[in-house]
Amino acid sequence: MTTSPPDPAVHVRDLRKAYAVHEKEPGFMGSLRSFVSRKTRQVEAVRGVSFDLHPGEVVGFLGPNGAGKTTTLKMLSGLLHPSGGEARVAGFEPRRREAAFLRQITLVMGQKQQLIWDLPALDSFLVNQAIYEIPDDQYRATMREFTDVLGLDGILKKQVRKLSLGERMKCELAAALLHRPKVLFLDEPTIGLDVNMQESVRAFVRDYNERHGATVILTSHYMADVTALARRILVIDQGALVFDGDLGSLAGQAGAGKTIRLQLRSPVTAQALAGYGQDVSVDGLSAQLRVPRAEVSERAARLLADLDVADLTVEDPSIEAIMADLFGHRTPPALERA
Amino acid sequence: MSRLNTARVLFATRFAEMAEYRAEVVIWMLSGTLSLVMMLVWMAQAQAAPGGQIRGYDAAGFATYFLSTWLVSQLLVVWVAWELDFEIRQGTLSAKLLRPLDPMWTHYASHVAERLVRLVPMLVLVTAFALLSGARFTTEWWAYPAALGLAALGFTARFLYEYAIGLLAFWTESSTSFQELAWLVYAALGGMFAPLDFYPAWVQAVAVWTPFPYMLGLPAQLLAGKAGPEDALRGALVMLGWLVVFWFLRLAVWRAGLKKYGAVGA
């Protein structure tokens, strides 16, 4: 007897979004010309993206600014109507914005979203409890859970406008997840937060995913968010999906290379190391350089033979370096699956 | 039951929010002085006219009429078009669209809650203005609930069409210019500049096909003792008809607008 795999929590096929943008030359004459004849340009923000996410999966959604990440998330949460293609989230078509769909999802964007600015955060939670029709016992249990994990004690009764950025973000997250959504779209949830607060948010998302089996799709410029939470990575560039696979495979992408770190017994110049690899940096007796993945052994052997090396380590490249390599080109390659 | 609970919580929260702005609400009320300025102009005209009257209104009659329009207009204040214009252009509408409740109800709860915050200072101010101007409101008890009922219908109708105007921000750079035009028509045909029977006949003929005389002028005339119960009943029926029209108009513009929404910014 065979069991069929569960239906995907998120199913996306050939999703597209194009919109017109108005263009105007700067200055007074530009304004006059625009007043008489307005120029518009068609922008293809998302160009045929396809992927499936399984229930409970946590996925990092990466790409440079303007790649189409946020536009994709907005289509999946029902805020934007796609220009073409198909999207189903938790079995619903997002653009219809049915109440049953909205009860299953959340989208967190920035730190000023859900909360009522002039009232304590607790009032916003009560409003969400009423809107989502959360039973009292579930509301109390969820608040206890969130208070423990996020450390909300002492801030719930303060006016939202008097909260610090980090405190506000914690409350925003709690408000956005109070109804226990099954699918979380998190768009830069840690942006602007200090390191400790970023870690709290990560811990909260990890804990929520484990407790409730929620599917999470996360965009972030902080690679620590992605490496801490996601095993699978989707990379989008210029509106097209260019990578879909696990973190390790992403590191194996062409051009990513590896980093050799050296501890030297006698100083050398960066110029002297330039012949062994790229992106050389030297700091006293420490140095590092990047070498092609296929030539790591040969370059390491040469370094050990030619220089007075006390220690040598080989590391996978940082995800930032991988991104820099991936987006150094401007023509999106065909989708890599790993 | 759960809908009632949602309405109760929304109203209570919005009341708490509006109460934070109580001082600003009073200042806002004082800034809506057009009726009071018109009252002074027409009272002076009546005092200078032969017989101290113009078309049956003496100075005290004008004071009563314009104070009544001021009172009713306080109940009809709607700012939702400004808020929607901001929310759509800045993208802050997105957070509201993610919740399983039409954002209209949050705005409606805010407006109704603000009326309660407005109530006490409004009654104090109208009493003071009445003592200063010599206004004499009707002694017919039924006129007060009738005027209040018409004002409630008028407020809801105005809320709905202003909402539809605010939604034009889905298509235009700014919808507030349309709102200002709509205010001018509302003030003119509602009788804020002068009682409607002072206007040329053709304007009066056009006005009766609009909701404005019934939402502002008629309740004011009821308070002034210049309209009867049958006028109130007819006005209420007309307003109910307009409510249905504006309900569907708002819904159609909302549905079409969502397809255009760019969710920029937030």
From TrEMBL, chain A:
Superkingdom of the organism of origin: Bacteria
Limits of the ABC transporter domain: 10-263
Gene Ontology MF: a single term: ATP hydrolysis activity
Acyltransferase as UniProt keyword: no
Position of the signal peptide: none
InterPro entries: AAA+_ATPase, ABC_transporter-like_ATP-bd, ABC_transporter_ATP-binding, P-loop_NTPase
Keywords assigned by UniProt, alphabetized: ATP-binding, Nucleotide-binding, Transport
SUPFAM superfamilies, sorted: P-loop containing nucleoside triphosphate hydrolases
RNA-binding found in the keyword field: no
PANTHER family noted in UniProt: ABC TRANSPORTER ATP-BINDING PROTEIN, ABC TRANSPORTER RELATED
Protein's name according to its UniProt entry: ABC transporter
